[in-house]
Design a protein that fits this description.
The chain has 441 residues and is an alpha/beta fold. 41% of the residues lie in helices and 13% in strands. The strands form four sheets. A six-stranded parallel β-sheet has the order 11-10-9-12-13-14, with helices on both faces. Strands 3-4-7-8 form a four-stranded parallel β-sheet. α3 packs parallel to α4, α9 packs across α14 and α14 crosses α15.
């Protein structure tokens, strides 16, 4: 949302980002280039974790969020800066009703890819059921040329909370017929068949990849970083270590800011990395480091003269992926991480965990052909031998050459989409033109 705001602001649009009071408290840094205001989810001290249940949180957020967003719109009007358009996250469909109450244009901004959005649309329409009841089921998603297996579908634990999350995902489409535009954080060339199909139902615009301009088209010279961070990055330590590694020799490993691996999986991953005989930079959040094998960090330090591996609590991912020493990205395949790897042309070894990640991994391997998937065993664990084999395939084997070539191709297409005359840039220009023609209410 922030990156899209920077693009709009560079074209003369006045932006205010509204996020929750609790979220603002968790930020390490806040951007100064965009105006940020707080609304409330009703749980200002602890956010989602303060609520007793997921249903409590969503219910309270709708009631309190609607009220405080309305107050913010009124406040901005009183300050001489009236709002004429609300861009909202579809997880919060009540924002449409607030928008309509004020006579404003409403725009949904989907932060997952169009294939995943398509799946949730069909769940909403009750054409698809998640989780799939048949293990061996093959599913054809409209606009997608290959079949999707059950293991490629978005996954959730079987419990009441997970059912509510899935309900929320499907409810993104509950009032989408009322919005004026639907924005998607992807680019047309990446998913054109699915986008063409969805465009018959909703007024869709792709406006991504929403990563800082200096990693893509380089037209916004002050847009070098996201400017938002939940954790403090160990930037200097990472870069100092990477600068001493050969070109394309390092496996970069990160499972994002939320995913938590089981202890057994953490151990298998640790030995898989070590046994691959490739240098690795592994992001293990401080809350997760107790799951590392006993003496693992000590052993790494003993072999530090060989530059074998470095474990850090957090790092600036874009800077890592852009570094010439990185040879591949071992990732959980969250959409932000996947889109960053695509945009910077980094081949992937995928280890999806839940939600949209299995579907993203399927696209990486079989549609975009810029990575491999490390498969789980019957216990749901990816074993060290599989991890080692996947890393070697991407980094060393003949098949890895094709993967790396495809990665370069997608990098170029991603850059072109955001550059002058590109598909996403044209959509953003059209969106801005629409905003300019609207008179503030």
């Amino acid at each position: 949302m922030l990156q899209f705001s920077k693009r709009l602001q560079s074209k003369g649009v006045k932006i205010t980002i509204a996020t929750t009071k609790f979220f603002l408290k968790t930020m390490q840094d806040l951007p100064t280039s965009v105006s940020i205001e707080a609304i409330s989810d009703g749980y200002d001290d602890g956010g989602f974790h303060q609520a007793k249940t997921f249903v409590d949180y969503i219910t309270q957020f709708k009631e309190v969020g609607s009220d405080t967003l309305s107050q913010l719109i009124q406040k901005l009007e009183n300050c001489g800066c009236p709002v004429n358009c609300i861009v909202y996250d579809p997880f919060l469909p009540w924002a449409v009703e607030v928008s309509k109450n004020f006579g404003l244009v409403s725009v949904a901004f989907f932060t997952q890819n169009c294939v995943v959005d398509n799946i949730y649309y069909h769940v909403h329409k009750r054409v698809l059921k998640l989780p799939s009841t048949r293990v061996d089921q093959e599913i054809l998603i409209p606009g997608l040329t290959c079949m999707i297996e059950s293991s490629d579908m978005p996954s959730f634990d079987s419990n009441p909370e997970a059912e509510r999350i899935l309900e929320m995902l499907a409810n993104q489409f509950s009032n989408l017929d009322k919005v004026d535009w639907v924005l998607i954080n992807s680019f047309y060339e990446l998913e054109k068949e699915v986008i063409d199909w969805m465009s018959k139902i909703y007024p869709i615009m792709t406006i991504g990849p929403t990563i800082p301009s200096m990693y893509l088209d380089k037209r916004l010279h002050d847009d070098k970083e996201y400017d938002l961070s939940i954790f403090k990055p160990m930037t200097n330590e990472c870069l100092n270590w990477l600068n001493h590694q050969p070109i394309s020799s390092v496996v970069y490993v990160s499972f994002g800011s939320i995913t938590s691996l089981e202890g057994e999986q953490m151990e298998e991953l640790a030995w898989g990395l070590k046994n691959s005989n490739n240098n690795f930079l592994w992001v293990v959040r401080s809350t997760e480091q107790s799951k590392l094998p006993k003496n693992f960090l000590e052993e790494l330090k003993l072999t530090s003269s060989k530059n074998k591996g470095l474990v850090v609590s957090w790092c600036p991912q874009l800077q890592m992926l852009e570094h010439e020493s990185i040879g591949c990205f071992l990732t959980h395949c969250g959409w932000n991480s996947t889109l960053e790897a695509i945009s910077l042309g980094v081949p992937m070894v995928t280890m999806p965990q839940w939600s949209d990640q299995p579907t993203n991994a399927k696209l990486v391997k079989d549609v975009w052909e810029m990575g491999v998937r490390a498969k789980q065993d019957e216990k749901g664990i990816v074993r060290r031998e599989v991890i080692e084999e996947c890393i070697k395939l991407v980094m060393e084997e003949e098949k890895g050459k094709l993967i790396r070539e495809n990665a370069k191709k997608w990098k170029e297409l991603a850059r072109n989409a955001m550059d002058e005359g590109g598909s996403s840039e044209k959509n953003i220009e059209e969106f801005v033109s629409m905003l300019i023609t609207i008179s503030p209410k």
